[in-house]
Structures
1.
Amino acid sequence: MIEAGHFAAFLALILSFFQAGQGLMGQRRAAGLSAIVAFGAMTFAFATLVVAFATSDFSVQLVAANSHTLKPFVYKIAGTWGNHEGSMALWCLVGIGFGAVAAKLLATGRPRFEARALGVQGLLNGGALLYLLLASSPFTRLDPAPLQGAGLNPLLQDPALAAHPPMLYLGYVGYSFVFALAAAGLIEGRIDRVWARTARLWALAAFMPLTLGIALGSYWAYYELGWGGWWFWDPVENASLMPWLIGAALLHSVIVTEKRGSFGVWTALLAVLAFCFSMLGAFLVRSGVLTSVHAFAVDPLRGSLLLAGLLVFGGAALILFALRAGKLEAGPNWTTASREGALMGNNLVLIVATATVLLGTLFPLIAEAAGQTMSVGEPYFNLTFTPIMSLALVALPIVQAWSWGKADLSSLWKWGAAFAGIVAVFWLAGIGPFDIPLLAGIGLAIAVWLIAGAAMEIWRRAKTAKRLGKMPARVWGMTLAHAGLGFFVMGAVLETSGRAHTTIALQEGQATSVAGWQLTLDDVESIEGPNWYAERATVTARRGGTVAELQPHKRFYPAAQMPTTETAIHKTGLADLYVALGDGRRNTQGETRWTFEVFLNPFIDLIYLGTILIGLGAFLSMFGRKTRVKEAEA
């Protein structure tokens, strides 16, 4: 069966290049049909890999290296994409899938434009399939087949990590089709309102899963790695954050192009950059140049090929933009003191923020190439990224209230006074048991500012529409996303400023107090799972009348010869009591003392509530009322 899948993947390769040729020549029907058949072929190819993992077919080298007969069935399936070759196969499947969906749904009334977009997408898919089949084939066989496999990386045997890669790839690869639309528009010299209406939907289709994928990865790191935090500025985390920031700028820019016909050149550039940063993320994760718990370490040859692909496709994208941007119409004039001007300022801030993350991510690699060892961590990002993003967040509610074309600045001082008042309230009064320092007070003020701004926007729109039910879904989506951003900021500030952390050592029956909780170690026992052994501690936590039992444990996976930390988290609604089991040490009296990392993380659920609202807002925005465009413009 795996040979049939291998053949189907080559068939998808041929069809993708046929799609590219037919599409670039303007043959809409042939390009669309090729995209759909290629998706069917690649779906079959990927399904053969899934079946090989499900049945523990160790004659397939990929299965032998990343699976085990004792592994739970769900992780056998997830093992299909929990490695370099399988993840690249998933990447190709998603990319071809976007082309197939576009072939079915794309209806702009411009068949040559649609054909060229499908042609560019086919070219990108063909390049990815070439790399997969010639440099990273998941279909290689072993003869003789081993009796047992090596097992999947234990860190990846987790529900969040099973869903995390597919969600990220929907985002990453989704921006490849937004770029395909931009390339087709640049070739035709028309980045107008009709183009923007189409591009906005596809940009949202990429932005939503990318948001949720990043959140899944963050939550996995929070409860699985035992570090107690939710974001570590890990280079691979940064690799997903950068296209998200560019994607956010693209969404705001494409709205201006759709509504006003302006920003055509800028929107096309952002579509190109979103694609380039998605390619950069793939290179950083799979090239082996980064050391990270999230990265796939591969050999230098594959890394060199990925770098070559990044330079070829990214360079071609930028060259196309440089050659064709001058052919685009400028659109209506606008002033700095307008919603257009404010959104342009917002985009510039997001670009600068992305540049700071890029510099912090790549600078250690540059220093290493120069023979120096240097690390860039949280202090750098706190001093650069956070203040830059704060500017965009403070301006957001004001921008929503401004008019298109030219805004009334007479009430600007009222906005400033309101924001200063919110800062003063949080700084002087504080919240709950926390003494709020100035910077945290500003952060909380920004969070309340965003949530209040979203509520005011709904109120303003409701007054215009006479009733809430008449407001289009895209307005609700925008408001939910902005409110979600406020909840995210609130959770991040409260968790960071109020986090309590300590390391304790306890014998069985011993108790101690941590952050208002009394923790008692009841016992530590050995347990066995389907493919692991573990030491599990039972800790009773008491505060007032609340009693909770926590069971953190440390697992050992014999197949992979690798330990993992399984934390225990008790949620109170206002905070997480987070306990991670460390090592046991026997003293001279023969008594064993066990170490624990204990965190109290206040309001951390607001972070994930915020990201869910942002993703939901993006989803609702896809179903908003269509912008009416004059036939002459179409």
Note: The beta strands are 500-506, 511-514, 517-528, 533-543, 546-550, 553-557, 562-566, 568-571, 575-586, 592-602.
2.
Amino acid sequence: MIDVEDLIALVRNYNPRTNDDLIRRAYAYGAQMHEGQKRHSGEPYFTHPVAVAAILTEMRLDDATIVTALLHDTIEDTKSTWSEIARLFSEEIADLVDGVTKLTNLQLSSSEAKQAENMRKLLIAMSRDLRVILVKLADRLHNMRTIKSMRPEKQAQKARETMEIFAPLAGRMGMQWMREELEDLSFRVLNPEARNSIIRRFITLQRETGDVVHKITNDIRLELEKAGIEADVYGRAKKPYSIWRKMREKELGFSRLSDIYGFRVITHDVADCYRVLGLIHTRWRAVPGRFKDYISQPKSNGYRSIHTTVSGRDGKRVEVQIRTRQMHEVAEAGVAAHWAYRDGVRTRNPFAVDPAKWISTLTERFDQAEDHDEFLEHVKLEMYSDQVFCFTPKGDVIQLPRGATPLDFAYAIHTRIGNSCVSAKVDGLRVPLWTRLKNGQSVEIITAEGQRPQASWIDIVVTGRAKAAIRKSLREEDNQRFVRLGQELARVAFEHVGKKVTDKALRTAARMLGIGDEIDLLARIGSAEITARKVVVTLYPELAAARPDEVDAKRPVVGLSPEQPFRRADCCQPVPGERIVGITYRGQGVVVHAIDCPALEEFEEQLDRWVDLQWQGGRHPVANTVTLEVTISNHSGVLGRICTLIGEQKANISDLNFVDRKPDYYRLLVDVDVRDVEHLHAVMTALEAESDVAELDRHRDLSRKP
């Protein structure tokens, strides 16, 4: 375990003005609180907080964060309290420790609903003070480094959680080194065979080709010396998990995989970055489509660098990153660079991003998510995606995740532009809205008045912002349709009891039913959350009970204009009580289908033909034909008993057709006229109870669809 003086020395390396006494007191307090506690490995528990603090010194963080690391488990695992830490140290440190404690208690790999709720809490903690997340990431990194002492099932659970949540979060925050180490440590647990295989192939490759990294590093340094450019050059083979992910994404074997070596050139100023780029492209052949200039178009977390891939020695592809020293510090520390110290003062790195602004851009659309699945989708899209940079016709830069489309671009400009988008031009050429955008392209959005988002757009866009805006627009549009349908349902229901529906009556009913207002009430009626009859009964219980609601057989559904022709679909034969939808046919009016009818699949992209319908409330006549497929024993009198059973249920047989005759059984189709779904259920229950009925099913014939 690192002793307190060694820890202070690590802090003094970048912050000579550190508060030695504060760190000593925190070290002593933490050691006292955790005295007697052991880790799974058998070591004293306090070795863990000290190791976490040491990791944070590598990020050159302030005293408050270092002290928080030393105390981060005291509230959770000891008798210490927030009040005591605030009294002994400060309220700032107590709040940070409390924030880490709350994050530790979040079960981020639990059920979808719980995971969404906990991810919201994680983001709230980030928005209050990002240092809480930095301590938590360092805590997770040390736990992953020492994970072998845990039970195998616990190792797997922690590794999955790290791979899915903490590693991408570290990457999004700009701490790429931490992301890579967390991924590789998780990979070692989750797929040790694959990791060992890649390491063995690296060893074989090095044996065959020699130390490629050393050779290429010397080649780059030689070119820099010739040009008189002072710069540091570092090279390395990429991490096993990064190699394995590329093998899976590109479906290539290790021997066919290129770009497994990476090099960094750290210069003194921006001008030298571009001079180095010119030297490298002059000396080696650049790989088309693999150039990214994050200096002129930085990432939202402050990352700046030039990336290029070239064919190096023996045709091996290598990636070269070129950046200045200040850019490199931000690339290593990410958003944490905001708190970095040097020589006792807060570093004024011009490229460091204000964490508050970064968080606000990250969480801009999260609060609009309606449900858990939608929220988690937004988190994954916004937090864990790489970026591309495109231009508006005026030259403004729009940052989007990889795989974004012109629709995402439109919504990134403004929700109004996205909602009214009809087409787009990329680099002057008209393209489909589902086109995937690439770095550096110029995008022009073409809009039209009256255009509204389509349901199919959800599958086209990839940004959480666009998905949220589209869903909100669709919900509003659906709500308007439900209100219109609810008005018609309410009108019919009120007329049945001799009353006229009024805004005042609806407001009163809404208040009595605990619903917001009359508009909300109508929308719920239209969406079948509440029946119009229930509204009538709420207002006029005596009238509703006194007058039976006999439904006109000629107009059994609500949602059509009086002159609009309609008929029940022969393929699914919907009956009152079942959810229905109408499909318009030219020259035929509206055909009413059951909501689960397979025939509706062919209309999924023709939403303009769909009509919201509901059955009239009340008692329907026995006029809805349903075809039953019945298999009966071939005994005398069985068919007669079947017909009698149907008649006893007050249903009518309108047709009967034998489809199969065997020596021991008959299979026949019986057309039965019923009142509603309850009536149908009563008929089928009576038939199923008959011992000579072998099988009974409701017959649906898709060949009879319109």
Note: Confidence is low (pLDDT under 50) at residues 109-114, 368-372.
3.
Amino acid sequence: MIKKVLIANRGEIACRIARTCRKLGLEVATVHSSAERFARHVREIGESIEIGGAAPAESYLRIDAIVAAARRVGADAVHPGYGFLSENADFVRALDAAGLTFIGPRAETMERIGGKASAKIEAQRAGVPVIPGSPGGMKDPAEVLRLVQSMPLPVLLKAVAGGGGRGMAVVETLDGLEGRIESAMREAEKAFGNGELIVERYLPRVRHIEVQVAGDGQGQAIHLFERECTLQRRHQKVIEEAPSAGLPEPLRQAILADAVKLAASVEYRGLGTVEFVVAGDEYFFLEVNPRLQVEHPVTEEVTGLDLVALQLQIADSGTLPLSQAEVRCTGHAFEARLCAEDPAAGFLPATGRLQLVDFARAGVRIESGVESGDEISPHYDSMIAKLIAHGPDRDAARRALLAGLRASTVIGLPTNLQFLQELLEWPQTRDASFHTRLIDERYAPGAAAAAGAAAPGSAVPIEHLAAAALYWHGQWRAQTPELGCWTLSGLTGWRLNTGAMAPAPQPALVLKQGASEWPVRFSGITAQGDYRLRIAEEEIEATQRQISAGRYLLLCKEHALEVTIGGDAQQIELVSALGTAVLSATSYLGGAASDAAAGGQLLAPMMGKVVAVKAQAGDAVVAGQTVVVLESMKMELHVTAPFNGNVSSLRCQVGDMVERHQVLAEVSPV
């Protein structure tokens, strides 16, 4: 009988598993890397063992360290969560040898269906339709190259051991193919310890449907209905829902039946997910994830089941605690993955400190592994939280999630918060006419302009501009010595308190977001305590009062608005009922200097590790040619030459950890 569980994971999933363990009366402990000694999962769970360095290969992927940690805390079972070692058969065998219960499938089952290539073989044996392509995994890049060249394009490259879109590449042209194959293999090797790839026919406009299954390990299996995971960006899920919207009932039942048939054929034990792609009235097996999924909460919401509790019960008893007839699907559920990333910069992941994280008014289920003041590290994924909403029907659940996102506040790093809100309002989301490439096509270079779509978050309301200007003013006033030009209540710091109450003839500052900018002129303060401002060409009166840490009440144009504000006098981030905005603030006299940038400098787009250097000092390069490759957030970032020229200096080498905006190399024009 299981008494204590070691959670061999981190972040939100570690916290979520611990809550269920405690509800069932089980003791719990976890593990952490040297970079996460004070992480939320460590704080919340309360007992944790440090197992190595910040990089996953030095900690969360160390089988020996996790087995030793389980023994040290007196655990008799290990829950792997998702990612890391959750699909590693060697890990399961090591736990078996140590007398520890693995909360998941057996090692031999994992080997049969955990890899994409082997799972495809098992699906064919069970009579489940599969996508045409290579019969198994391929280790030789030259072999992969030859096969791709022999197939009609587009073709999909997939990491055998991968997941979450890592180690995947869609090949639509043969240009640069060799480099793309090497990059996919390298990314897969670093993320999963296995660079093997399979090659398949690429189906460009499909839906991604997955079925939650449970088995007793003796040939009995059931399904817990399906999830719709079609809204993806670069093969990574963004919004999921349950059940799937708009599937014809005969097609739905065929998919559910095939998922159960496959699970039963391999005598699956525990929870797993069988994934399919749907193209028109056809469906094809994609892969099996022999673990808990990130999006499992939507299944919990519509079935009323605790899937972690179900995992623990199967592991403890070796039986299914419920029958297929007892599983009911009620209503509809949506989940959104809130991540630290910048939609305006191609969804580039962001790293650094979260100044404020607040979901108190969201009104939906929150699963998070961070709190205010925590760090988003380049060593792990960029997820801040999952927001999950349930409703009696699909539109009610969608609207509840939309309201929850609008009521959420994250300050300190760029996020996809506003993008998620926009995505839920897209017509294709509303009527479920989406496909897996919808987001990528919409935000491909030039696509937004062609479609007449604005970049995410590009419009800034006058209220946000006023709030930013007043916050900037307050920051400078607070930094000024007593009796300086800012400290008398009647002065703004930019004009004498005499004459007409008119804005100054020159701007005090310039607020900028992207290519847009707004000069701001201050007047003095009115008898009522209001500021008179001219923002661009609009003149307004506004006042702002702090009501708590980071929160202000803005009165502007007869509009009272609570605004959460963070940052400093140089960069200001705002969140309110009107949305979010991140604005740079530059004093008017300093604007020209701050805009200067040395041409040809190749800067690191974010903190990361240099994994490849493709050119040396003195080499000739062409515009767009990769010079340096970084690894961050489990993905590769290619830093390219901005124009044709020669590499005049190289300031990094393989293995270096570099900061965001650090100069990596310089290119001089020819």
Note: DSSP finds 18 helices and 38 strands in the chain.
